[in-house]
Amino acid sequence: MQTKPEHPAGPGGDSWLRCPFVSVPAIETVGLTKFYGEQRGIEELDLRIDPGEVFGYLGPNGAGKTTTIRLLLDLIRATRGHATIAGLDTRSQSLEARRRTGYLPGELKVPPRSTALAYLRFLGRLRGGVDAKAVSELAERLGLDLARRIGDLSKGNKQKVGIVAAFMHDPEILILDEPTSGLDPLRQQDVLQLIRERAAAGRTIFLSSHELDQVEHSAGRVGIVRDGRLVAVESMASLRQRAVRRVEVRLAQRDADVSGLERVPGVTDVSAEDGTIHLVVEGSMDALVKELARHPVQTLTSEAPELDEIFLSYYGDSHDDD
Amino acid sequence: MGTDVLTETVRERAWSTLWWAVGLAAVVALTVAFYPSVRGDAALNDFSKNLPESVRALFVGGELDITSAAGYLNSQIFALVAPLVLLVFTIGHGSGAVAGEEERGTLDLLLAHPLRRRDYVLQRFGAMTALLVALSVVLLLTTTVGALPVDLEIGFGKLTAGTVSVGLLALLFGTLALAVGSARPGRTAAIAVAAGVAVAAWIFDGLSHTVGALERWRPVSPFYWALGKNPLRNGAQWGDWALLLAVTAALVVVAAVGLERRDARQ
Q1: Which residues, in sequence order, are CB contacts of A307 under 8 Å at separation 6+?
Q2: One-letter-per-residue 3-state SS of B71-136
Q3: Distance CA A119, CA B5 (A)
Q4: Do B109 and A125 touch (CB under 8 A)?
Q5: What is the pLDDT of residue B38?
């Protein structure tokens, strides 16, 4: 795990930096394990996330992401191991840890009869009061009508209520479980922008998702969980290097000789039929585009890498195995 | 400990509680309005006297003379209808406070805030108590006011004693539902246990009037603590009230500890 011996003091609360040379991790888990009876939630999780990091926590549904998050918030209790938030034990010092945390649940449920504003005020009071201006500013940015009853809001708008609740007290640490789920693509960008801003202001952000896209532009490091195990922790840059994309190229010339594509570094699984080429490329597309430039290209479409395809590159380097 | 959860719950439940109050007041007013036509009806009194004792215990509060003022009110309201309404209300609230919120999925976000679980339980108990007090006051006021024009003379003190007894009984079973729902997830189980124990205790109380073997066990039923000594006739029952409160307090502790110890279900 990476360490930052001299962490820059972010604005508004680096109270966890008790010693100037050793930064207390924003989030740390040691051997964190949770079983639900026989069923594994997460096992032997060792994570260290430094203050100011944006950490992407990636995995397919059911991999153990939500279990991890609910352990951090003391909603469920570990079978073994322990965790800290800002140096505070998530069991014995949970109250203080939660005070410093903003949390967006993966499946947010809010009482339908309250208005968004009344409910957010109530949640604010649980934190000893929250600046009303912060609430209205966040709502305005996200396009949330605070006067409406929550029961009358669409799924996306309910999600916005949760996002405002997580951000409104400007916490040191944000734990967001699939924050962009249920939002339309434009609003997703608003939320990701909000995350980047808080990150720039020195806040720590723990961001879970089952889609690489949702963490790609904000996370500095990514942890990948699968079947309750952390299988890799990598920088976003190196993950991007390994990310595989499916590419479809349509050439104007049907009988073009595309045998050269097979020799392009990173390109595999080339198939060509009637001038339409399908292939898989790992990492940078630069060499591929340069090779394609020798042909008259009509369209070029590239699919965002699926998480499963990123996983493939972790389980042996062959793309053929399942 | 804050009071935010308490006030929010009361605010959220204010309207529905108002409807409960309207319903309760209507039943009471209607019952009281019929008193003049019952008073002095010897046939009705004979009917009541000829009931098997356990049936009389269950449905008319063991009253022999249901045409007297206290006998009428006790048999028609305080022995059956009022406990029924208030118990359904408190068991609904108690089971909803933790297990219900958990099933709706709204508990997660609250417990992720800087709020101790035991404080959450205590505040929800406080909210239930506050709303129950409001309903009990409605019961007391409608019986008192309704009694005036029909010459139902019992006296405010004894009506208050009857109301306190019924209120404390409902509080105990609502807290039982709260404790079950806090100790383990599932609202249905919380309702089933609380309602099941209440019905069993009620039937037991009735049977113990006639079944000799049960007679000496009569004092184990909370219904006996609340109504066995007929507070409407005999006034305040401090010892029994203290007992009801003590059991309720113990159940609050069970609820707080239960929720502190377990996983919150998503």
Answers
A1: A58, A59, A60, A210, A211, A212
A2: HHHHHHHHCCHHHHHHHHHHHHHHHHHHHHHHHHCCHHHHHCCCCCHHHHHHHHHHHHHHHHHHHH
A3: 11
A4: no
A5: 83
Q: Are A203 and A171 in contact (CB under 8 A)?
A: yes
Across the interface, of B2, B264, B266, the residue whose CB is closest to A107 is: B266
Q: How far apart are CA A269 and CA A277, in angstroms?
A: 10
Gap between the Cα atoms of B71 and A100, Å rounded: 61
Contact A126 B5 (CB under 8 A): yes
Say how far apart CA A137 and CA A122 lie, in whole Å. Answer: 17
Hey, how many other C-beta atoms are within 10 angstroms of the C-beta on A287?
15
Average pLDDT over residues B209-236: 88
Counting DSSP H helices and E strands in chain A, the numbers are 10, 14
C-alpha separations of A65 from A68, A103, A148, B2 in Å = 5, 14, 32, 32
Distance from CA of A179 to the nearest CA of B (A): 14
| 8 Å CB contact of B113 and A126 | yes
Residue A217 identity (one-letter amino acid)? H
DSSP symbol at B220? G
**ipTM summary value:** 0.89
Nearest chain B alpha carbon to A69: B112
Residue B114 near chain A (CB below 8 Å):
yes
Please check whether residue B49 touches A, CB under 8 A: no
A75/B263 Cβ within 8 A: yes
Sheet holding A276-282, edge to edge: A267-273, A276-282, A244-251, A297-303
Q: What is the pLDDT of residues B21-34, one digit of tens each?
A: 999 999 999 988 88
Which ranges of chain A have pLDDT less than 70? Answer: 1-22, 304-322
Sign of the C-alpha dihedral computed for residues B84, B90, B96 and B98 taken in this order: negative
Closest in A107, A122, A165 to B4, CB measured = A122
Tokens 């050269």 correspond to A260
As given in the structure block, the two tokens for residue A215 are: 């963490």
Q: Does A37 touch chain B (CB under 8 A)?
A: no
Range with top average pLDDT, A224-228, B129-133, B224-228: B129-133
Here the tokens at position A114 are 């309250």
User: What whole-number percentage of chain B has pLDDT above 90?
Assistant: 66
Q: Specify the pLDDT at position B56.
A: 81
User: For the residues B3-15, what does the mean pLDDT come to?
Assistant: 95
The reported pLDDT for the residue numbered A313 is 59
Q: Which residue has the tokens 């679980």?
A: B117
Total beta-carbon pairs less than 8 A apart between chain A and chain B: 66
* Separation of first and last alpha carbons in chain B: 25
User: Any chain B CB within 8 A of the CB of A22?
Assistant: no
The pLDDT tens digits of the residues spanning A266-306 come to 888 888 888 889 998 888 888 999 988 888 899 999 876 66
More confident residue, B146 or B263: B263
Characterize the bridge pairing of strands A204-209 and A54-58: parallel
Cα gap A54→A49, rounded to integer Å: 8
Q: What is the CA radius of gyration of chain A?
A: 22
Average pLDDT for residues B194-209, to the nearest whole number?
92
Tell me the chain A residues in contact with residue B4 when contact means C-beta distances shorter than 8 Å. Answer: 122, 125-126
